[in-house]
Design goal:
CATH class: Alpha Beta
Helix content: 40-55%
Strand content: 15-25%
Number of strands: 4
Radius of gyration: 13 Å
Distance between the termini: 27 Å
């Protein structure tokens, strides 16, 4: 799980959401902005899962993936992960592969 200082405040979220570069896959969207430190946010809307329990589970899984990836690859910048409806039908392994693929597209 991300530390509190690594998460975005609402004010920061609004600013980076409008300014960041967007990357897409069928299940996820990623908004990236360069920054000297690592910050991240995950958004799971009601259109993806109706129940808060399900939204929170998916959010925790994505925070786990982005945290571990940031530790392994020493990521810098602001990352906002947006979920889409197909994210509900794929497993954890495929979700991880999709997010890592989006993160690798940033470097190229």
């Amino acid at each position: 799980m991300l530390k509190k200082k690594e998460r975005l405040t609402k004010k920061e979220f609004d600013r980076f959401f409008s300014l960041g570069r967007r990357y897409h896959s069928p299940a996820l969207g990623l908004i990236y902005s360069p920054a000297p430190d690592f910050h991240a946010a995950v958004v799971v809307g009601k259109k993806v899962y109706k129940k808060a329990v399900d939204r929170n589970r998916l959010r925790r899984q994505l925070y786990n993936i982005i945290y571990r990836t940031s530790q392994e690859k020493n990521l810098k910048g602001v990352y906002i992960v947006l979920t889409k409806a197909p994210a509900t039908t794929i497993g954890f392994g495929e979700l991880k592969a999709t997010l890592e693929n989006l993160l690798s597209n940033i470097k190229s």
